[in-house]
Amino acid sequence: MSTDNAASNPARQFNDATKLQYINLANKPPLYKTYPGLRGIALPAVSGPAGPAMPTLAAIRGDGAADNPLTSESLASLLYHSAAVIKRARLRDGEVHYRAAASAGALYPTEVYIVCGNLDGLRAGVYHFNPLDFTLARLRNGDLRRWVAAAAGDHAAYPATLVFTTVFWRSAWKYRERGYRYCYWDLGTIAANLLATGNAEGVAVNLQAGFVDRMLTGYLGNDGVQEAPSLIARLGTPEGQLPAGSGDVPGMLPEDSIDLYGGAIEYPLSRQMHAASALRDGDDAARWTAAAGVAGTSDKDERDGTGEGFRPLRAEAGGGFDAGIDLAAEPSAPLGETVRGRGSTRRFATAAMPWPAFRAVVDAAMHGFDDAGVSCGVGPNLNLYLIVNAVDGLEPGAYYYNRFYNGLRRLKTGDFRHAAGHLGFEQALPADASAVAFITADMEGAQSRLGPRAYRAVQTAAGILGGRLYLGMHGAGYGATGLTFYDDAVIEFFAPHAGGQEAVFVVPMGIPHENNRVRPFRSRIAVGLDARARGAGQSI
């Protein structure tokens, strides 16, 4: 009997599944999808040395009208400041590329496609965006917007739609099953940049997480398994209605892309999760859209009240509410400058950051967040908790952001630097940071309202909120980074207030250290847990 067939050999399967290695560079997927047989179409150069001039916090908040027409120039700006390679660095082992939005492990699992009518300088068609050389590959000719409209159940004639897809293997290569979450966090940070850039350019951007998956896979040349559509972004103001389309894919694509999945390892839980969350027909999409457009309701924040331990964001130095404080007045760098200069902080100084800057960033990030076109319909199911280590005028402790009163409810007082470091996967970053944002979700509430697809939307929306905090901190002259975490320990720390929720995303924020390199860290909590795991304190 042959023992070479791994698929029928339990010992081989078990041994392969339990091997340990650091990183296997031999099967690392390509970071860029390209179409070798198609000529790249250059996008207009992004004007100005710094791009959009609107202050970063104003761009995040959405201050100003978004009624400018979409042009090829504004499309280029939207793509550049959300998904393009914005700088390169030559390191000892080769060149490293930095993109406009933060990505877990710099793996960038998100691809971008454009479906548009005629724009000045760009013919109607379906395009793939190459972030490395800032070009488009034309995949289909003609005005084919009605196929995306049919998939999304919205036939308004938007000038263009961005369809984001996810190449799951890019994240799974390093993060395995958990990489499925990271894919949607990365999608969220890109969407945060896109929304802010749309505000700065005066071009409306509306996100939609509900669409018939299979109607977009063949249309874009995806298989729906290794690469699948994940989010739609409508750009500009619609002019009339598109003619109804049949929904049938209009033939095969003219060219194949490079192989993105060679050596890919299958992770069955991720695949099952994705299949379970698919919308299979127009009725599914219509139900999703109707449910996502109705904000979930909760009286928790209204019951939370104000009183002792509550700090309004519009607060004087002594903590009292002051309606005259203009949270939007806090200065910040132009958005283009922030995006082009951004980089995840690797080490924080332990010094305190000022209360005015801190509250302005939190307020901007939460401003309008519950809108379905920003948070994919799950905004009300997300919550923001904070460990404050060092913010001038704010007592160190654990806090909850109350969106009803736009302020911080203190849950407990104390020095929680070691707790923050432990919760942030035993890293120094959250221990040293001025404050750490913990984004949590009422996952069951979201799924009861929106079904299994809510899981994708929750992860994406958390990435958007985290991306807004990240952009805001960098724009205000401080630092931030995304972080993984010990899931249940986060909820236990903020219990009982966070009971019944799930931890989704973590963002340490504060003053970058002059030596921007990761420092070793070991929390007292981990030391104690290890000792108890070895038998300390147990009865004999």
Notes on the protein architecture:
The protein is of the alpha+beta class and 540 residues long. It folds into 2 domains: 25-253 and 266-290, 3-Layer(aba) Sandwich (NADH Oxidase), CATH 3.40.109; 343-524, NADH Oxidase, CATH 3.40.109. 33% of the residues lie in helices and 18% in strands. The chain contains 19 helices and 16 strands. The strands form 3 sheets. A 7-stranded antiparallel β-sheet has the order 1-6-5-4-7-9-8, with helices on both faces. Helix 3 runs antiparallel to helix 6. The termini are far apart.
Keywords:
single chain; NADH Oxidase; alpha+beta; 19 helices; seven-stranded antiparallel sheet; 540 residues; 18% strand
Average predicted confidence as pLDDT: 91
Fraction of residues in helix: 25-40%
How many runs of DSSP E, i.e. beta strands?
16
Strand content: 15-25%
The outline comes out as: globular
- CATH homologous superfamily caption of the largest domain: NADH Oxidase
Number of helices: 19
